[in-house]
Specification:
globular, mainly alpha
């Protein structure tokens, strides 16, 4: 049986920020692949399949080297987590081709809000009026970023919202698994199941990538594996509703990456929407900081 990690909110926050930087990097590479920068544009389903393939290879190599003790896996939770995770990253990669990275990331990483809402009935976590208020503020920011009537921008925003919902649901499965099994076991099984799902979905659209596209796909997989490792370890060390808001750091990283690589700067609507979302996240983080330290709940 896996022994749960000791609660450590500060380390959990740092791990989550690192995960956000890695995750934003995967979106940058996905945008390059999906917009034809590295050759003929690849379909988001194929990009997602490459992400799971190379993430599995990276995590498999680490697992073989470390030889962690394995416990009996809860396959139902793993399948649920992998299905929602695949849906979330695929929709995120699709959204990145239509809207600026900062917008896609801002909307997609509303998943902590959905995760916080789902944590109430599914994990038994208590959410007070301040945290609910923070959620409302963040959702208002998302409404601004959807740019109603904005054509391709609006369509991309809808894709990102779908990603946020899927990743919010995945957050619950991660939390339930984090108290049962070790991080490497969780990541290995998740990426194995995710690869099966992604491969089946990509069969109808797959075509041979060029050398640059293979390197980008490998980069997505390795960066996502690093992001997963950081995030799963963070979830094992703190309450889900505390850890999740720190993933908003991806907003900053995405804006920097987009400006540096694609020369895309956030417009006034992007700044306003992202600012509102960050206000909600900041309020949530402030509220958590005033609460007394709590033990990380262990899944039954």
């Amino acid at each position: 049986m896996f022994t749960p990690r000791a609660p450590n909110p500060a380390l959990a926050a740092l791990l989550t920020l690192a995960a956000s930087a890695f995750a934003a990097g995967t979106t940058l590479l996905a945008k390059a692949l999906g917009t034809g920068v590295l050759g003929p544009a690849l379909h988001p389903l194929q990009i997602s399949q490459g992400r799971f393939l190379f993430a599995l290879l990276a995590i498999g190599a680490v697992t073989a080297a470390m030889r962690p003790r394995m416990s009996r896996p809860h396959l139902g939770l793993h399948v649920g987590r992998s299905a929602f995770g695949w849906g979330g990253v695929t929709l995120m990669f699709a959204a990145a081709a239509f809207i600026p990275l900062s917008d896609a990331t801002a909307i997609s990483f509303l998943n902590p809000i959905f995760g916080m809402m789902l944590a109430v009935p599914l994990l038994g976590e208590k959410v007070g009026p301040v945290r609910w208020g923070a959620a409302v503020i963040a959702l208002i920011g998302a409404a601004v970023l959807t740019r109603p009537g904005g054509g391709a921008l609006a369509f991309g925003a809808v894709l990102a919202l779908g990603s946020a919902l899927c990743l919010g649901a995945e957050l619950i499965f991660i939390k339930r698994l984090s108290g049962r099994e070790g991080p490497l076991q969780i990541l290995l099984i998740n990426n194995l199941i995710g690869l099966v799902i992604a491969t089946l979905a990509a069969l109808l659209v797959w075509r041979a990538p060029n050398a640059g596209q293979w390197l980008a796909l490998a980069g997505i997989g390795v960066l996502m594996a690093a992001a997963q490792a950081c995030f799963v370890n963070a979830m094992a060390r703190a309450d889900a509703s505390f850890v999740a808001p720190f993933f908003y750091g991806a907003l900053v990283f995405a804006a920097i990456y987009d400006a540096a690589v694609f020369s895309v700067l956030p417009d006034a609507v992007s700044v306003l929407g992202a600012g509102i979302i960050l206000t909600g996240a900041g309020l949530l983080a402030w509220r958590e900081g005033r609460r007394r330290p709590q033990k990380c709940p262990i899944a039954e």
